Amino acid sequence: MPRRLPLLALALCALGGAAACGGDPATQDPACVASTQAIERALGRAPAPVTVGAGTRLSDCVAHAQSDADLQNTGLVLTRVADDLSSRAQRGDAQAALGLGYLVGAARRGAAHTSGIHAELQHRMESAARPLSEEAGRSPTITRALARGLRAGEATG
C-alpha cells in the first residue's frame, strides 16, 4: 500500500496541474536533463555548491519536475548518474561516492519542497547509495565521502 501513495499523488497532480499539488508552476531548466555527462561533471565540484545551466541547483531540478514528462526525464537522467557514480564508488572511487552523496542530498532537499510526488525519485537515488554503506562492506573512506556529499547536498544542493 505505501508504494501506491506516491503514484496516487502523481496521478492527482497530473489531473489537477501543478497548482493543485501545492507548488507553483515553475519551469524546468533544460540543463537538468541535457545529459548525464553534464550532471556528472557538475557533481565533480562537490562538496562545493553544484549547479547546472544558468545556476540551477540540483534540488531545483527535482522540485521543478512537475509535469509527468519532466518527472520522467529528470528521473531518467538522475538515476543514470546515480547508478554510474555508485558503480564507480563500489570500485573504490571516493570522488564518485562524494558526488553520489551530494546527488542524494540534493534529491532529498528538492523532494522535501513537493507534495510527495518526488518520493520515488528520492528513493531511487538513495537505493543507488545503499551498497556503499559500511554494513555492505565498503571502506571507511568511501562511506565518509558519501556522508560528506550527503551533508553538502542537503545543505546546498
Provide a brief overview of the structure.
By secondary structure, this protein is mainly α.
What attributes characterize this protein structure?
globular; 2 strands; two-stranded antiparallel sheet; mainly alpha; 157 residues
What this model shows, in words?
The protein has one domain (4-156). It has a two-stranded antiparallel sheet. It is globular. It contains 7 helices and 2 strands. The model is unreliable at 1-24 (pLDDT under 50). The protein has 157 residues and is an all-alpha fold. Helix 2 (36-43) packs across helix 4 (68-90), helix 4 runs antiparallel to helix 5 and helix 5 (94-111) runs parallel beside helix 7 (140-156).
Query: What is the H/E order?
Result: HHEEHHHHH
| Count of individual beta strands | 2
Rg from Cα: 15 Å
**Average of the residue pLDDT scores:** 84
Total count of helical runs of at least 4 residues: 7
Classify the secondary structure makeup into a structural class: mainly alpha
The figure for the number of domains is 1
**Into which percentage range does the β-strand content fall?**
under 5%
Q: Give the N-to-C terminal Cα separation.
A: 31 Å
Roughly what percent helix? 55-70%
Major β-sheet annotation: 2 strands, antiparallel
Oligomeric state of the chains in view: single chain
| Major sheet: arrangement of strands | 1-2
Topology of this structure?
Layout: H1 4-20, H2 36-43, E1 51-52, E2 56-57, H3 58-63, H4 68-90, H5 94-111, H6 119-129, H7 140-156
Antiparallel strand pairs: 1-2
Helix pairs in contact: 2-4, 4-5, 4-6, 5-6, 5-7
